[in-house]
Design a protein that fits this description.
This protein is mainly alpha-helical and about 190 residues long. It is built from eight helices and two strands, in the order H-H-H-E-E-H-H-H-H-H. The longest helix has 17 residues.
Length: about 190
């Protein structure tokens, strides 16, 4: 019978004492994140809520860095005359932003965290994107269908955040590792 003594490290200790072992753990963390991507349910709930607030419904979607698109069903609104992009912008201010607590009297409108539909930060990001698109003369239907760009940006930012060293330390930081980065299990 023999006794083997192994020194164990937390991730913070491993980073200082054995950077190569720490780099291995970080690679393992990132591989784990890529094989189990985060759920997009909050993002999609926010997207659906914003589209609904604009009078439409999300009929098809594909979110991803390689191919991203949205299809929105948006019935025509009743207007006193011909529907134009100026009326889309004014309608959006009066019918979506103002009733949800945004100060529409000052330009540009500030999207500072109200997130009125789901409480998720994407609410404001979607509304701001629509606001800018309409302000630049894009029709509402097209402004809604370009929200896939906001979705893709959120997905990429979330993936980067999830794979970060800080997130790994927050999730695996109390585990113990050998000098070469293998996790110790009792």
């Amino acid at each position: 019978m023999r006794t083997v003594t192994v020194t164990l490290y937390t991730l913070a200790e491993l980073k200082l004492a054995h950077p190569k072992g720490f780099a291995k753990v970080l690679r393992d963390w990132r591989d784990s994140c890529r094989s189990n991507p985060d759920d997009l349910s909050d993002l999609l709930a926010s997207l659906r809520a914003v589209v609904k607030a604009c009078g439409g419904s999300l009929t098809e979607w594909s979110i991803g860095s390689d191919s991203s698109r949205l299809t929105v069903d948006l019935p025509e609104r009743e207007t006193d005359g011909e529907l134009d992009t100026d009326s889309d912008f004014l309608w959006f201010l009066e019918s979506v932003l103002k009733p949800n607590g945004y100060d529409t009297l000052h330009f540009p409108v500030v999207f500072s965290g109200l997130c009125p539909f789901t409480g998720y930060c994407a609410d404001d990001d979607f509304l701001e994107s629509i606001y800018r698109s309409l302000r630049n003369g894009m029709p509402l239907h097209r402004a809604l269908e370009t929200l896939h760009e906001v979705c893709t940006r959120h997905e990429q930012e979330e993936a980067e955040s999830q794979e970060s060293e800080e997130t790994m330390l927050a999730n695996w930081g109390d585990n113990e590792y050998t000098a070469n980065g293998d996790e110790y299990n009792d």
